[in-house]
Amino acid sequence: SRLLSRLNLSSSQMIIIGFALLILCGAALLMLPFATVSEESACFLDALFTATSAVCVTGLVVHNTATYWTLIGQAVILVLIQIGGMGIVTVVVSISMAAGRRIGLMQRSTLQDALSAHHVGGIVKLTGFILKVTFAVEMIGAMILGFYFQQDFGWLRGMWYGLFHSVSAFCNAGFDLLGEQIPYASLTGYAASPVVNIVVMLLIVIGGIGFLTWDDVRINRYHIWQYRMQKDGTVFSTSSAQSSVRFSELMSSNKSALLDDKGEYSDWIELSNPSDQAVDITGWKISDGGSIFT
Fold first, then answer.
1. Ramachandran region, residue 56 (left: φ > 0; alpha: ψ -120 to 50; beta: rest)
2. How far is CA 124 from CA 231, 277, 286, in A?
3. Which of 95, 126, 100, 96 is nearest to 112 (CA)?
């Protein structure tokens, strides 16, 4: 975080760099000899394409995932899918939370942009909620699919297939491991299976509606008219213009960037109100003290 502060990178720049580094690291791992079934390692272009497709959850492949990659290679792809589906910033902040590190204002603002959250307050709590829902839903899907797949592939392999396809479906990634007998068959062999079809469809929908929709359901329950509408990366509230106010500029560590009118390097924030309604910010406070962040 100190290095990022010195570089004075914006939230968007940090997110882009994070995704680029993740893709390159994934490609490097997929180029290792033990990542492919054949004795020859994957070429850089094939590994880069696969890593990019996994991180960006497109599902496009240049090799049959089931037969070209080893268990380790498939595990690398699965991790890339999971990080890409949740977001690199969400994962990094989650690791920091697990390590007991303090989440500063810059990290919170970056996380707000990554999640398109309507305000910074409660962003850490929202991250914890996202983690719980993600892993709970994926594990339930993995157990159901694994129990079904074990009939065809045995317990160990069946449970691995269940986990892989649960994460892939939840993250809307499109990758599969069912192309051994018929290359690139995907789920066509289970077209007549209600269990597989229903579970995969539910995982796709639950994962596809987005983190903020989950938060709306958790907070507002059946009061649908209070749900927020997400559009073009900005979240608007149907209940109040206050919810649409967000950070447009943030300088939390101004040591050499810009001088103010007094010739000092001051920190600052700038709020933006995209709505056509005036917002009274009397009494608003800002803090990076976690539970008192309002």
1. alpha
2. 22, 28, 14
3. 126
